[in-house]
Amino acid sequence: MSTDLSTENLSPGESAETPAVRVRGARRTFEAELAPVRALRGVDFDVAKGEFVAVMGPSGCGKSTLLNVIAGLDGVDDGTIEVAGERVDGRDEDWLARFRRHHIGFVFQFFNLLDGVSALDNLVLPGVLGGMKRRAAEARARDLLDLLGLGDRLQQVPAVLSGGQRQRLAIARALVNQPSLLLADEPTGALDSEGGLEVLELFRRLHEDGQTIVMVTHAAEVAAGASRSIRMRDGRIES
Ligand SMILES: Nc1ncnc2c1ncn2[C@@H]1O[C@H](COP(=O)(O)OP(=O)(O)O)[C@@H](O)[C@H]1O
Ligand SMILES: [Mg+2]
């Protein structure tokens, strides 16, 4: 790909050497009926700009919690989270919403697309929310959908697309506002093997173009597409 897909938003004071993600001593405990669940028990985790990191580990080990605290969708009880040189922990919802809009693209297992609107509008709406004029958002949306192989699907609603196409649409949406960081939580988990390969191939191309990606996955063959993988167990990073 040869567009500005990877052109990212730099924060004030951020330089090219600022790590994409720096997590230090992150702890997150959930109250539960029997006993508190310690989802993160002191996690240190760094991602350099341009890396494609796979996060693996058994169900319940804290992978989604780690992504959520990096995205500021959930808070930590202790420790610090930095994304693109900015502290994310301890911020209020308004700040987080603004930060996410400009710095973070999030891809979910079950796509979370807007079902009632076209593929194009699934991208234009977040673009406009992110501060783009409608025309600019539409141009960007068309470019992205072309690049992601959905250029002939602009007016279709998600329901008529295959699983792999829906996830590519969700990835296109996550990229509309040129996030410095793309987070994906089991993006191939709901897809058949063909759809999974489509999505993985797309992540590889984005990575080649310089996009920083952190992807949670169960599947070793999916993790093999990343430039580095880490393994979690019981709320800690094992390796
Ligand atoms: N909102 C929540 N409330 C209570 N417990 C939670 C919540 N989110 C996650 N947990 C618990 O925290 C642990 C880690 O969950 P999670 O990060 O989703 O694991 P993974 O993504 O690796 O499967 C699990 O035991 C899970 O049940
Ligand atoms: Mg999970």
TrEMBL record:
UniProt cross-references to CDD domains, sorted A to Z: ABC_MJ0796_LolCDE_FtsE
SUPFAM superfamilies the record matches: P-loop containing nucleoside triphosphate hydrolases
Entry-linked Pfam families: ABC_tran (PF00005)
ABC transporter domain residues: 21-239
GO cellular component, one term: membrane protein complex
Keyword ATP-binding: yes
Keyword Transmembrane recorded: no
GO terms for MF: ATP binding; ATP hydrolysis activity; transmembrane transporter activity
Assigned keywords, A-Z: ATP-binding, Nucleotide-binding, Transport
Region annotated Disordered, chain positions: 1-21
PROSITE patterns registered for this protein in UniProt: ABC_TRANSPORTER_1, ABC_TRANSPORTER_2
Chain intervals with Polar residues compositional bias: 1-12
Name recorded for this polypeptide: ABC transporter ATP-binding protein
Organism of provenance: Herbidospora galbida
